[in-house]
Amino acid sequence: MTQEPFLREGLKVEEARKEVLKEIKNVLDNFTIPFESIPLEDSLEKISSTDIFVKQNIPGFRASIMDGYAVIHSAKPQKGQYWKVVGDSSAGKPYTKNLSEGEAIAISTGSLVPDECSWVIPLEQIKTEMIKDSSFEKIHLIDDLTNSTWIRPVNDQLSEGDIVLEKGQKITPSIIGLLASCGISYISVFKSFKIGLLISGDELIKPGIDKSTGLIWESNSFLIKNIIKNLGYDINEISIQADDKFKLKNTLIELAKNNQIVISIGGISVGKKDYIKNIINEIGEIKFWKLFLKPGRPFAFGFIGQDIPFFGLPGNPVSAVVICLQILWPVFQVFSGVKNIETPLRFKIRINSDLKRRKGRPELIRSKLKVDQQGELYADIPPAQSSSQISSLIDSDLLIEIPPDKDLLKKGTYLWAQLFRKTIL
């Protein structure tokens, strides 16, 4: 545990993530993730449940890299040499007759090169003319050739027996394209797990309803549902409840029956009506509470019953988003069968203004990624950093990592940053 001023404690986010993943993997050791076979076109963002091997060489034939002429010539063709053009090979319509020395065929890019042809000569290096008293053309080489034959081998992309997709690999658009090029139309993937979401607060009303003083339109379900969707996962069930301990307890029990993961937002701090932590200890167990982090300190992890992971997120929207990225995203990947856990890209970047803050906790500050006149990247940090301000997320690309012992950082200082826009927003 790391101690803050005023004896406030919490786990460092790295320690918390490690502890959470250890507990999750212990649960999954006794659980086989179900899988299903689905059409390839429906597999985007799914996770492969098995290794897939290519059954033949791809593309499976020698193909021309250029538009030009395929020629039979035992040695490298020389400037001034002639060939008789006896046919052509185009995409999907290969030349199938036998060729002899001194003969050539016109050929287009990607078309099959006959086995007896050893060179493709690009159009730019050829002059054509009609053979006298004949319907045939002849070509002659007008420039010296490079050492390239301009022919792709039969296994230019993949060789028979190569692994084209590994178990636990996320399926991307490029992977879908590659699998299709191997003739694969169905793929075995892990089934999606179900997530239940509880939003609590007496002050919450649905958008579209007239608001009176002291109430707020509920937005966290919209924000977190769509952030999780951008991560590649779906919320199965959402329940919005007032701060009533009996109703909250029953709701959490029902969510645990219908889902493999339960998340709550709000009611996890130390207020009079923050019931969630005590409820979880009644129906399961809280493993730890509070992070040594800003924003996101009031966070709880535990289990409902013996094996339903529970994550209690703070009610402030920015804090909830930070927890989604730092803790929940790795958990979702483990639960979905991902082999190599993906994390936000981290790099160092300079800040464009002085930064003053209260030291004590490490802080993740929202920032815009910009480029100066010299083409160098820098972080433009807006003044609004309240964890309650959803608007501060809209133009942000980065989370700047501020060390806990720093209260003043000068303009031009280089700090670690996490690229998060392409990840979750």
Automatic annotation (TrEMBL):
SUPFAM superfamilies: MoeA C-terminal domain-like, MoeA N-terminal region -like, Molybdenum cofactor biosynthesis proteins. The keyword Ligase does not apply. Its cofactor is Mg(2+). PROSITE patterns: MOCF_BIOSYNTHESIS_2. GO terms for biological process: Mo-molybdopterin cofactor biosynthetic process. Pfam families: MoCF_biosynth (PF00994), MoeA_C (PF03454), MoeA_N (PF03453). CDD domains: MoeA. Residues 196-334 form the MoaB/Mog domain. InterPro entries: MoaB/Mog-like_dom_sf, MoaB/Mog_dom, MoCF_biosynth_CS, MoeA-like, MoeA_C_domain_IV, MoeA_C_domain_IV_sf, MoeA_linker/N, MoeA_linker/N_sf. Coiled coil: none annotated. Belongs to the MoeA family. Catalyzes the insertion of molybdate into adenylated molybdopterin with the concomitant release of AMP. This is Molybdopterin molybdenumtransferase. It comes from Prochlorococcus marinus str. P0902-H212.
